[in-house]
Design brief:
It comes from Funneliformis caledonium. This is 9507_t:CDS:1. Keywords: Heme, Iron, Metal-binding, Monooxygenase, Oxidoreductase. Belongs to the cytochrome P450 family. The structure is a single chain. This protein is of the alpha+beta class. It has one domain: Orthogonal Bundle (Cytochrome p450), CATH 1.10.630. The strands form 4 sheets. It has a 5-stranded mixed β-sheet with strand order 1-2-8-5-3. A 3-stranded antiparallel β-sheet has the order 4-12-9. A hairpin with a 2-residue loop joins strand 1 and strand 2. Helix 7 packs across helix 20, helix 8 crosses helix 15 and helix 9 crosses helix 12. The longest helix has 27 residues. The radius of gyration is 23 Å and the shape is globular. The model has no long low-confidence stretch (mean pLDDT about 90).
Length: about 475
């Protein structure tokens, strides 16, 4: 078994150090105990894996399962008849229906961004200060995703946008609740969390499901009628609803809109809040470092020459945003999560160094061991160097041994392409449209809760650009 780090307080174990001194604590554990070590936190022993063996965890999908941890933590089995559905199907939907068809959605994504930026940040030339930017950016990302999922018409509805924006945060409450009851018995907290859902006292998915069903039914009925009337002249909509309608198991005589809503639920959960978080981090990272804005502005200004009269860039222009892509990747690398991405061990496993883990054990990835490592990242790995990846054939969506933000192996995040596309398109537009800086004039640090971080709620000053600046 991996070595268990010494601790002094019975029952509590390493929980306090894990919560309140995670950066230094994990660095010290790594120094004293090596690449793989175990801690006693929240009433159970959990193992943490560093840079030398992280890719074993990511590659062995038949041994280590991230989805099983999510299923345990979030009571989808109590909220939905089929839980969060078949994960293989969900991955297929993201890959085949979205990631491989981003070019089809290109114009709509940009139109949605133009509209949302104007709506939430305005056109006034007077300076404005915005606090807690994660809130409006969550709405921006929600509008864009809704456009792809339920179509252009429904994505203009405020009720739909609210559901897309709030669904993940409402569900994530189960992840946010400290597992204090696990001190009594491991897994007790997850069991107790399911009780109010099963009793009908609290179900955060219910209201969102009802809204989705209402709008999905409207679209399905409309499309089936229009297709019947127009026949060959019918213009096919491009969105997830239409993809679901055209699947072999769809029965037009027995339409189950609730089932379609449930299919959307997991995809919404996986796609909104992580993207908006990363987008907010990238924006505040740049606002904290205004010395890089001009260089990025000049690149975006050159790329903007390829846009049409409506300001829509060709999809190929994204590949030319070399400096912006590098900035986004550096922001992702320095997100600040010390550890995360827990996996459940599905069967007994022996690492290549001989250390063993039993079935049902939990393994976390020690991200800092990769992101802050000089041998992997090059000189000054702890400093923010925005153009670290320029001319290195290392785009923000590319997974590698030195970049595990999106996981790795064949189950690397399938939504990384749309996520990085959205972030780059947003940053491109916001850089061209505004001058901005932090209200404090300093580099704003992220909010840290235990080993995880969240975007700063700092104030950011916006000023509309003149044509000459």
């Amino acid at each position: 078994m991996p070595p268990l780090v010494r601790y002094r307080i019975p029952i509590i174990g390493h929980t306090f150090s894990y919560l309140f001194d995670s950066v230094e604590f994990f660095a010290q554990c790594r120094k004293e105990y090596g690449d793989i070590f175990s801690l006693y936190i929240w009433g159970q022993v959990r193992t943490f894996v560093g840079k030398e063996h992280i890719h074993e965890v990511l590659a062995k999908d038949d041994v280590f399962s991230f989805k099983e941890i999510i299923r345990k933590k979030i009571p989808g089995d109590a909220m939905y008849a089929e839980g969060f559905g078949d994960s293989r199907y969900n991955i297929m939907v993201i890959k085949e229906y979205i990631s491989k068809r981003l070019e089809i959605y290109n114009e709509r994504m940009q139109t949605s961004l133009h509209s949302s930026i104007q709506k939430y940040f305005g056109e006034s030339r007077e300076s404005k200060v915005f606090h807690n930017l994660h809130y409006p950016l969550n709405k921006v990302v929600a509008a864009l995703i809704a456009n792809i999922f339920v179509g252009e018409e429904e994505a203009k509805n405020d009720e739909v946008i609210a559901t897309f924006a709030e669904f993940t945060s409402d569900m994530a409450i189960f992840l946010a609740i400290p597992p204090i009851l696990d001190f009594i018995y491991p897994g007790l907290q997850d069991y107790i969390n399911r009780i109010p859902v099963r009793l009908g006292l609290y179900n955060p998915a219910a209201k969102h499901r009802n809204i989705l069903v209402k709008h999905i039914k409207k679209q399905v009925d409309k499309r089936l009628k229009e297709r019947k009337v127009c026949q060959d002249s019918w213009e096919r909509p491009n969105d997830l609803i239409q993809e679901f309608i055209e699947e072999k198991n769809f029965d037009p005589n027995n339409i189950d809109c609730a089932a379609i809503a449930d299919k959307l639920a997991f995809i919404i959960f996986a796609s909104i809040i992580t993207t908006s978080r990363s987008c907010t981090n990238a924006f505040i990272d740049l606002a904290s470092r205004p010395e890089y804005i001009q260089e990025l502005y000049e690149e975006q200004l050159q790329i903007a020459k390829e846009a049409d009269k409506s300001g829509i860039l060709p999809f190929e222009a994204l590949d030319k945003m070399k400096k912006l892509d590098s900035f986004v990747k550096e922001s992702l690398r320095l997100t600040g999560d010390v550890v995360g991405n827990p996996h459940l061990v599905l069967k007994d496993y022996t690492f290549s160094n001989g250390l063993q883990l039993p079935k049902n054990h939990v393994v976390d990835l020690y991200f800092d061991d990769i992101c802050q490592d000089k041998s992997l990242q090059g000189p000054n790995p702890k400093s923010f160097e925005p153009f670290r990846y320029v001319n290195k054939n290392s785009p923000a969506s590319k997974i590698s041994k030195d970049f595990t933000v999106f996981g790795g192996g064949k189950h690397a995040c399938p939504g990384r392409f749309i996520a990085t596309t959205q972030i780059k398109l947003f940053m491109h537009n916001i850089i061209l449209k505004y001058n901005f800086r932090t209200e404090s004039g300093k580099v704003e640090e992220k909010l840290r809760i235990g080993p995880m971080t969240f975007p700063s709620a700092c104030g950011v000053i916006f000023e509309k650009r003149n044509a000459t600046n």
